[in-house]
Amino acid sequence: MSRGRVSFMWVAVLVVPLMLGCSSSAAESPEELVEKARATGARASGNADFTEALKLTEQALEEDEAFVPAHNARINILLEMGRLDDVAAQAQRLYEVQPTPDNHLYWCMAKEAASDDDSGQKACYSDVVDSVEQSSETPATNANYVMALKLLESPKFDEVVERYIVEQESDAAREMARFQFIERDRETVINNLFRVSSSGS
Question: Using CA atoms, how far apart are residues 53 and 57, in angstroms rounded to an integer?
């Protein structure tokens, strides 16, 4: 009888940790979910794989809505799928949880890429300009500010971009800034970032 009790106790001792181990490994962290999503997206061969990757990023955001890598992963997956309307919506979600000038500018650009119409986005770019001017003593050193002025087609752009270029620390950085802000027209900037053709398709 005592032998039976001992066997039962050993079974209980073994089963409980196994059950606990299963439950703890089933709950993946937002970081793990995003890594799985990136891996799934990288080897995706069709929409089913991309859809699975999106589900993983959404699970990560359900655990932590402010987890920026999950927002960025979703944006990249949606870009791969060519779903620009959803890219714009996700960019808005990102800006709402992390309201920085670069996220604000990206959201404005995503909305323009999705609508293929810059006229409605001028107010958005103007908001970026205003927010940087209000929060920074030297807005002309902020690349987001310079790009927002370019996309806004502001009369301030020419003066500000030259000042920005002069402020760069090396010839290579100055050449890169000149290419980024002067040599590329605004349509090319949007199209290159969102991988859409000049026709907007």
Answer: 6
Domains of the chain: total? 1
- Residue 85 sits at the vertex; the CA angle it makes with 30 and 51, to the nearest 5 degrees, is 45
Q: Is residue 156 part of a domain?
A: yes
pTM of the full structure = 0.80
Q: Which domain holds residue 158?
A: 118-201
Which residue, among 77, 29, 72, 23, has the nearest Cα to 53 in the 3D structure? Answer: 77
- State how far the Cα of 85 lies from the Cα of 115, in Å rounded to an integer: 8
Length of the chain: 201
Here the tokens at position 72 are 């960025």
- Residue 54 domain-assigned (yes or no): no
| Residue 173 is assigned to a structural domain of this protein | yes
Tell me how far CA of residue 1 lies from CA of 4, 10, 12, 98, in angstroms: 5, 15, 17, 65
pLDDT in tens, 126-153: 999 999 999 988 999 999 999 999 999 9
Distance CA 177, CA 22 (A): 53
Q: How far is CA 181 from the centre of its chain?
A: 22
pLDDT confidence band for 197 (50 / 70 / 90): very low
* Residue 75 resides in a domain: no
Neighbours of 148 (CB within 10 A): 27
